[in-house]
Amino acid sequence: MAFDVKTKISLAAIALAAFVAGVAVSGTLNITPHLSADDDTGDLEALRDIGTGFSAIAKEVSPSVVNVSVSRTVKNSFQGFDFFGGSPFDDFFDFRVPENEEYLIEGAGSGVIVSEDGYILTNNHVVEGAEEITVRTLDGKDYDGELIGTDPRTDLAVIKVDADGLPAAKLGNSDEIQVGEWVLAIGNPFQLSHTVTAGIVSAKGRANVGLADYEDFIQTDAAINPGNSGGALVNLDGEVVGINTAIASRTGAYSGVGFAIPINMAGTIMEQLIKTGKVTRGWLGLYIQPITAELEEQFDLPDEDGALVSEVVDGGPSDDAGLKRGDVVIEFDGTHIKDVNQLRMMAAGTQVGKKVKVKVLRDGREKTFTVKIGELPEEETGSMFEPPGSEQKMSDKVGFSVMNLTDNTREQLGLEPGTKGVVVESIKQTSDAYQNGLRRGDVIVEINGEPISGLSDYQAKASTLSEGDKVLLLVITGGHTRYVTFEVGG
């Protein structure tokens, strides 16, 4: 039946598109379209086929989607906390909570039944901090939910209810979905149970969205709203291909850009959570950053593909294998590396203990190393480091000013005793250095590959720079090194 539904919707969509195109052409040529009774019947049938197909999918999948309600206790630590935040409601109601008084917060989201014996996949942010979890199925039955495990780094969680014979969803292959393919989103937006919306796959592989440490989102224009989190993104075969997670919106409501975690990723995380209650990830022991056009030029690279190694963790897997800072990883386990996110995702998904070939560019030449994958420590994410915020007060010809490192400064910045270099004291937001990531508090330890011993050494090297020169800095941010490149006077 699933194949027939998919075929009927596809054919009906083609027929409908052809009809719309014909009407559009007629309108452009100022020709009044005339439909015979047979034509009219055919067009209506095309519309009915689309609707019937969507209805069949919704009917098949909806029983596998549940409402997840949570409650948690929060203690107010602010005197005179005001629920309405100084709104006109203050004139009518006094909802100020006394300091240190506890109050109950309730929330709701969605989930997908993945096994007949009661395992349910949802988002971490739906159940985070929950003291009580209630799961309601399509037929109105309520179950107490047990939290099996969470993975904040992908925003996934697994809960369990004590039941048998539940309608488990069919899980698809998210690697096979295509941009432009029809999908349905099923969930409980605004606690409106089992709402179904339709759209297409707008994009695949969305990263750097800022929702989780590990991102490989499916983007869709199927309407997703608050409460849809944890619900199902479904293809025309009635298979779950994603777990709806978030929207990009300035208002907090639907704006045509929604994100879902691919079910292949979610399934792998789910299996580990069910089996061990935690997620074990592979670790290269590298800190990496994207290759910009400026870094491509500085390192004389053929293109912007790959991931630049900004730091190698002492004693880590890559250190043991021989990788160095400044290497550019272009291949991992036989797969060409396009960017930082791809390398991070592949390394994290590799079995701990496996030996993989890592190909790098070093001084313009390719070198291959064998790295034994380690286990990602709890405190590490393996990502590039976001520079801290800054306040700009002054600048010189390079757009920023620096000061010497003192023992007190080293201690404040968490640096090792004896660390040499200079610290950025202030920087202009309009400078090219700022636009390329340099921030107040960064410690400059190298200029164009030459180490900086102190303020006088820095001034001597900086004085040789001229307008338009390209500069490559090695800086310490948050205790780790990274590269920054900029143009003098830019």
Structure overview:
This protein is α+β, with helices and mostly antiparallel strands and 490 residues long. It has 4 domains: 2-62; 65-279, Thrombin, subunit H (Beta Barrel), CATH 2.40.10; 282-375, PDZ domain (Pdz3 Domain); 400-487, Roll (Pdz3 Domain). Helix content is 22%, strand content 32%. It has helices at 2-28, 37-61, 124-127, 263-276, 293-298, 317-321, 340-348, 407-413, 432-435, 455-462; strands at 65-75, 81-82, 96-97, 102-113, 119-122, 132-136, 142-144, 146-151, 156-160, 182-187, 195-206, 217-220, 232-234, 240-247, 258-262, 282-283, 286-289, 307-312, 328-332, 335-336, 355-362, 365-372, 374-375, 400-404, 422-427, 443-447, 450-451, 470-477, 480-487. The strands form 6 sheets. A 7-stranded antiparallel β-sheet has the order 7-6-1-4-5-9-8. A 6-stranded antiparallel beta barrel has the order 10-11-12-15-14-13. Strands 17, 18, 19, 20, 21 and 22 form a 6-stranded antiparallel β-sheet that branches. Strand 28 and strand 29 form a beta hairpin. Helix 1 packs across helix 2 (37-61). The longest helix has 27 residues, at 2-28. The protein is elongated. It starts with a helix and ends with a strand. Residues 18-35, 77-97 and 381-395 have low confidence and may be disordered.
Question: Which descriptors apply to this entry?
Answer:
single chain, 490 residues, Thrombin, subunit H, Pdz3 Domain, 4 domains, seven-stranded antiparallel sheet, six-stranded antiparallel β-barrel
Number of domains: 4
- Strand order of the biggest β-sheet: 7-6-1-4-5-9-8
Strand residue percentage: 25-35%
Give the CA-based shape.
Answer: elongated
Mean pLDDT: 83
